[in-house]
Design brief:
The chain is mainly alpha-helical. It folds into 2 domains: 92 residues, Endonuclease Iii, domain 2 (Orthogonal Bundle); 108 residues, Endonuclease III, domain 1. It is built from 12 helices and no strands. α2 packs across α3. The longest helix has 19 residues. It is elongated, with a radius of gyration of 18 Å. The structure holds iron/sulfur cluster. The site of iron/sulfur cluster (SF4) has 13 residues, from α9 and α12.
Length: 216
C-alpha cells in the first residue's frame, strides 16, 4: 500500500477512535494489562471487561493472585471463555512474576513469551499499552483489516502482518494502532459481514474491489 494512502487511513481512524479504550486495556499497570490480555483470548470485549473488573475488585496484584485458590479465580473470571484454563494460567503467571521478577512484569519480549499462556499478541499488548513501546499487537481484527485493505497477503502470519504494518506506521503511533483497528473492526470492518456501505476506505480496499467485481 502507498504510504500516503495509509497515512490518510490512519488519520481518519485517529479522528474517530483515539480516546476510547475497553476497561481491560485501559490500565497502565503492566500486571493488569497482562492479565487483561490473557483474559481477552477468544473472548468478546464486554465479557473480558466483566471478568477483569470482578477479578481485580477482589485481588490487586501478583502477590495476592499467586496465593489465591484457583477455584475462586475461576468463579470470578467465569464470564470469560475458557475460564478454567485461564484461571490456572493466571495463578501460575502470578507466581512466576512474584518469584522470578519480584512482583513486576518484565519489560522484555522473551521474558514475557516464556510465561505460560503468553503468546506474541499478548506480549505486544503489554509492551505497547503498559510500557508505551512502539509494538503493534496483531489480533484477529488487525489481521483481517490489514489483509482486506491489501496491506498484507492472505498467507501472511503474525510476524509478516506486523512487519508490514510497522513499515507504514510512524514509530510514535505504533503503540496504539491495535486499539484503532480493533475499534474499526468491531464497528465497521466486521468479520464476518463487513459494513462496506458505511466505510470511508472503499476506494483503497482490495477486498471491496474484488467483491464488487465478483458481484457484477
Ligand atoms: S471497504 Fe469493507 S472490507 Fe474494506 S476496509 Fe471497509 S469495511 Fe473493511
Amino acid at each position: 500500500m502507498d504510504p500516503r494512502v495509509f497515512a490518510e487511513i490512519l488519520s481518519e481512524l485517529e479522528r474517530r477512535y483515539r480516546p476510547n479504550r475497553p476497561e481491560h486495556v485501559g490500565s497502565r499497570d503492566p500486571f493488569k494489562v497482562l492479565i487483561g490480555a490473557m483474559l481477552s483470548h477468544r473472548t468478546r470485549d464486554e465479557q473480558t471487561d466483566e471478568a477483569y473488573l470482578r477479578l481485580f475488585k477482589r485481588f490487586k496484584d501478583a502477590g495476592e493472585l499467586a496465593s489465591a485458590p484457583v477455584r475462586e479465580i475461576e468463579r470470578l473470571i467465569r464470564p470469560a471463555g475458557f475460564y478454567r484454563v485461564k484461571a490456572r494460567r493466571i495463578k501460575e503467571v502470578s507466581r512466576i512474576i512474584l518469584e522470578r521478577y519480584g512482583g513486576r512484569v518484565p519489560r522484555n519480549r522473551d521474558a514475557l513469551l516464556s510465561l505460560p499462556g503468553v503468546g506474541e499478541k499478548t506480549a505486544d499488548i503489554v509492551l505497547s499499552v503498559a510500557f508505551g513501546l512502539p509494538e503493534i499487537a496483531v489480533d484477529t481484527h488487525v489481521e483481517t483489516i490489514a489483509k482486506r485493505l491489501g496491506i498484507a497477503d492472505e498467507k501472511d502470519g503474525y510476524g509478516e502482518v506486523k512487519r508490514k504494518l510497522e513499515e507504514l506506521t510512524p514509530v510514535e503511533k505504533r503503540r496504539y494502532l491495535n486499539m484503532l483497528l480493533v475499534r474499526f473492526g468491531r464497528e465497521i470492518c466486521r468479520s464476518p459481514r463487513p459494513r462496506c456501505e458505511v466505510c470511508p476506505f472503499t476506494r483503497y480496499c482490495r477486498y471491496y474491489s474484488a467483491t464488487r467485481r465478483a458481484s457484477r
